[in-house]
Amino acid sequence: MHISYLTSFIEIVKQDSISKASKNLHMTQSALSQQLQALEKSLDSKLLIRSNKGVELTEEGEILLSYAEALINIYENMLKDIDLCKKSEIQEIKISSCNSVGEYLLPCTLHLYKKSQPDTRFSIKNEYTKDIIDHVLDCSADIGFIDSKVNIDGIECIHISNINLIFVYSSNRKINKESISLKDIAALPIITGPSASSIREFSEEMFKRNNIPVEKLNIEMELATYESIKASVVADHGVSIIPATSVKKELHTNLLNTLPIQEDIPVCEICVIYQKSRASQPHIKEFISFIKNYGRKTFC
To answer: Does the reported pTM lie above 0.90?
Structure first.
């Protein structure tokens, strides 16, 4: 069935005449009659009854008329969308990011970037560092954001900024200290990320460096995201060591408290990673340049 046949059918019904419709459609009466016959054949139905008084819709014709205009509108909208797609200059950048960056730092950066580059669209997935690296390598992500430096063949790793780790606990928990040691923290119920997460690696490395065996840690819960960790700490299910940027709101509203950790603790080194071959694409190259120059200033 040709969509033009539906247009012709509607015009015939509207004019109540094949001859009048043919004039409006700028085609011969014979050609219009052939279109009507082809339409009836394709639907295996009689659609119109001709008479000296004009044309009369059959029951099947009534059904077709009720759908025809909607079908034509859908078809025309489809053509418009296809045309827009052909003309569109929107370029997508696929980002794979660690939770501490993708959820708490990048939103402001991407918002500001899109103000000057409205034709750029971002798709973001928050993942563990190993997955981010894999996805940059297999090109399912154009750019990755991780919280530690890596040295991997085929990947460029550029340091952007640092994030401090801090000790947090519920405002309902009383800790009468001005600072706290890792030994004291180890004895408290700790809420941390799963073994594949960077927060878990950072925490364990920190305790190991200070001669506190990981097996001695009082792990209360392993939760997948900073949001779930924060919610559990707010509810006083335990304490945590977490990136400072992820708890700014909770500290400001006094849902959580923090104490300085007495020992030296590592910082999360926020880095952007990408393959050189991907970075050769103009829209990706431009965004990477923006991150290198302004990323730290534009983070939330």
So the answer is: no
